[in-house]
Amino acid sequence: MSSTTISRLALATLGLGSLAATTAFGPPAKPTKPTPPQQGIGISLANIDQSVAPCEDFYHYANGTWLKNNPVPPAETRWGSFNELTNNNQAIEKRILEKAAADRSAKPGTNEQKVGDFYAAAMDSAAIEAAGLKYLQPRLNQIAGLKSLADIQKYMADPKSFGTGWYSFGVGQDSKNSTQYAVRMGQGGLGLGDRDYYLKDDGRSKGIRAAYRNYQIAIYQLLGDSPSLAATNADAVIALETKMAQASRSRVELRDRLKNYNKVPVAQAAKDYPNLNLPLVLKESGLSSAQDLIIGQPEYLAAVNTLMTNTPIADQQQYLRWHLVSGVTSALPKAYNDASFRFSQVLTGAKQQQPRWKRSLRATDGALGEAFGQLYVDEAFSPAAKARAKQMVENLRAAYAERIMATDWMSAATKKEAIQKLNAFAVKIGYPDKWKDYSKLKITRTSALQNIFATAEWANEDNLKKFGKPIDRGEWGMTPPTVNAYYNSSMNEIVFPAGILQPPFYDPKADDAVNYGGVGAVIGHEMTHGFDDQGRRSDAKGNLRDWWTKEDGEKFMAKAAMVGKQYSAFSPLDSVHVNGDLTMGENLADIGGLTIAYQAFQKTAQAKAGKQIDGFTPNQRFFLGYAQIWRSNQRPEALRQQIQTDPHSPGQYRTNGPLMNMPEFYQAFGCKDGTKMVRAEADRSRIW
Ligand SMILES: [Zn+2]
């Protein structure tokens, strides 16, 4: 009952937002004229800031008023159209989960029972408080009992161990032989999530390290360590992680798909890294039949191999203890959760923690997303919406083929391969045809923590058991309500969850201009990932293979380097610059995606007719729709974190960056040479 009320309120708020749009409307050319009500759907005229010239800063022109009126809510770290849509989707999920949790008669072992019990247990803060460390203690005891390297190796090899750190390990597609699964290993296990936080000496990095140390000290004391022992333990873990960070590759280095592919025979790896006891690791994971390992970062495993012998066992115990506890604070008593949130505040600047229901919802979505995905889809995504999205993908694909054929820099031989790859893109829309089978996963209402352990174990098992089987091409990497999309290079597929095929990205009531500028650009973005600086390295079958002529490859890289230079010059905060190398693939996808969407839009009746809506031409509405998707306010802390760790550029550059390279945009808004949005011809990058 209460959930219905809340979600109605959320919808009403959105409704009020568009009503307000009518009152603030003013046609761009004659702002003093009385304001007629907004006619078009999908672009909010009230978001526009008429005091900014579209040719000087299109992002702030399209969104300026919205940005002024929509500060980041206290529990959020950024706020924009993605968050608003996520909120809408979560309102639907909340109804589903609360209904499932209220139903105590669901048959044991069914998805309904698991979803309801998982959410109910996560929501039950009293039970979590009362349980204290009851369900954690056996695992803490196990770690306390590790007395030798052999014990550590055994613990690391056990698929039931939680949050083991040290390195990443799992089964995935072999990117040079995409019809086979392979065992993959690589760097991992840093509590701070990025090596630069350990290695940089600027004020922010030092502050984050200090906060990380305080976080650990707080947790150790909650676990019963004396203040001095807690500090000693924190220092030992940070010292160890710093050595791991020194051996880790940067995020930019990790982007290179060839350098991060190193296939070695198991026997060789076992000899190279004897202290990891790889034969035991493989055996315990049921992977003894593996002949080869694909190692992402051999020098990292070499460093771990050394660290595992020259780090005192007591310090390794603290490391494993820390990674166990810090991974489950959400299901521990409030004091643990508070310590975790205090630390995250330093990274993101959030003023408040998200409400418990949102945290529990996200956890349930992460653990069992496909167990209630169908219920979300039933409510939010019709077969007609799926058919329309599919049609749009095909329109974009046709437009992309035209652009490839029309490029003046690519040879016929490379074009042929590119078209083959484009035609081979598999497309997934909305939700999986075949849902994950959770029958072996045991979830109860007794303990949120037990549920987390059970889910992690199930997911690990689900991953490991793929080895030796045919590739599961029906698998999804995102749950249906997710407001996101992806390209998977080994599958050569583009995937669009139902969660993003919603307003403002796709609105069946809006005109084509808005939808092509919205979800059209999203589709184009994912397609272009297949041809970005890393995606281009795999072929139609999803195999890493160089199908470019030498000359074409060089021309492409020169154009990409130009994009890198453009974005590295963007500076959202004093002394903070976008990292053009880290964001390269995403920037190329943004630029290419918008170009392709524009090309596809030109074929529509609306574009051909050229009729204005609310004083804007169809092409102007296309670019406005695109820009309004990217409106976003962000806390400075979160922005700095994004710049350092996120391959996506901030929203304002995802808008202006592509537009500054597009003469079609200059033309639509009559932007003249010398305005900020118009790059000199020699400085423009046009790939597609
Ligand atoms: Zn992307």
Automatic annotation (TrEMBL):
Record domain Peptidase M13 N-terminal: where: 54-432
A Pfam family annotated for this UniProt entry: Peptidase_M13
Name the UniProt record assigns to this protein: M13 family peptidase
This protein's record includes keyword Hydrolase: yes
PANTHER family: FI17812P1-RELATED, ZINC METALLOPROTEASE FAMILY M13 NEPRILYSIN-RELATED
Swiss-Prot/TrEMBL keywords: Coiled coil, Hydrolase, Metal-binding, Metalloprotease, Protease, Signal, Zinc
Gene Ontology molecular-function annotations: metal ion binding; metalloendopeptidase activity
Coiled coil: 237-264
Highest taxon, organism lineage: Bacteria
Peptidase M13 C-terminal domain location: 484-682
